[in-house]
Amino acid sequence: MTTTAHLLDSRHEPRYQREAWAPLMISAAEIEAAFRALEAGDPDDRGRREMLIVHPQAPRGVRGLAPATQVSLGVLLPGESTVPIRANTTGLSMCLNGNGTIEIGTRTMTVGFQDVWTKPSMSMEVLSNNGTTAFRYLRYTNAALLEAISSYYEDFGSTVGSEPARSAPDGKRRAKDLAPAVELSDDGSQLLPYEHIIDPDPVTDRPLLFAWDDVSQHLSGVLGLRTGYTGRPLYCLYNPSTGRLNGTTPSFFATITAIGGDFAGGTHRHMSSAINYHFAGNGYSVVEGQRFDWSAGDLMLSAPGWAAHAHTITGAGARILTVQDHPLHTSTGSLVWQEDIDNGEVLALGTQSGFETNLAEYADRS
Hints:
Helices cover 12% and strands 32% of the residues. The chain has helices at 28-39, 143-148, 194-198, 212-215, 220-223, 326-332, 359-365; strands at 24-26, 50-53, 70-76, 85-87, 91-97, 100-104, 107-111, 116-119, 125-128, 135-141, 154-156, 182-183, 190-191, 209-210, 234-236, 253-259, 263-264, 269-270, 274-287, 290-295, 299-303, 309-324, 336-338, 347-348. Strands 1, 15, 16, 17, 19, 20, 21 and 22 form an 8-stranded antiparallel β-sheet that branches. A 6-stranded antiparallel β-sheet has the order 2-3-10-5-8-14. Strands 7-6-9 form a 3-stranded antiparallel β-sheet, with no helix packed on it.
């Protein structure tokens, strides 16, 4: 096939216009109906029963609820297991019902209601249901981004429980140690030989389990916050391997919002997309002037990239799992953020010094 590049003269072409994705609500009733549909019939050839939740504005071939985020519902019936598979995706999941056994690489985890776990890239994975009720889960991966740039990879295996050894033999130096970098100037610029390109220093990303029984014991630090606090009442489920990216995975952070009563947050916006799963409580979100009322069990693309939004929790409070592609943007320097939509400055978080909250003042008043 012969292809010809398009040569676009910027002097005569319109400037890039970012397409704003619309906020989107998937109700608890729709999710329940999807699970019931998945529980009928047989699993696929990978042993999975999963349903992707795709935004109507997603480009052809990109199956994401947000541009970089693929979201799916999954279920295994009692006695079912998936085929061992590995992929170059990273992701996290939350158990919504039942219990499951998760084998990822060398780790085996037993997960239950509201537990969250992570899956690193290229680790063999098997999910099993050894219980007596359906094991339901909500899953997030960066597959949508990889599909968009034609970079998704997966293969199948016959075993889990081992990871390939990729360290240099004892007593031997790595090839990159024999090919030192060349300093060019005092501004830090260097030349790196090829050996550095094919053998970068690895960062170990292990599968992690954030058990709800453990997480819930530490929510008192945010439960007492009330309207007037200029931040958000949440904790990030932090994976130390992500370092300065403050992620749960290299692409996403997952946060648990926990509030014990009414709380109205300020209107703000950020280039990262945010997806909220409301697993307890009630409230509403206002996104670009449009109000969405939500309650327990509803899933929402609550903050498409750079959409002005604010969230209000009502009544007895709420618990919310928020997944946001914040680390992805931090790693590329593209995380522009505005905390005060009316008068606040726009900063590139992770590249510039960021914002502050009034936590100290708030603590003094309380």
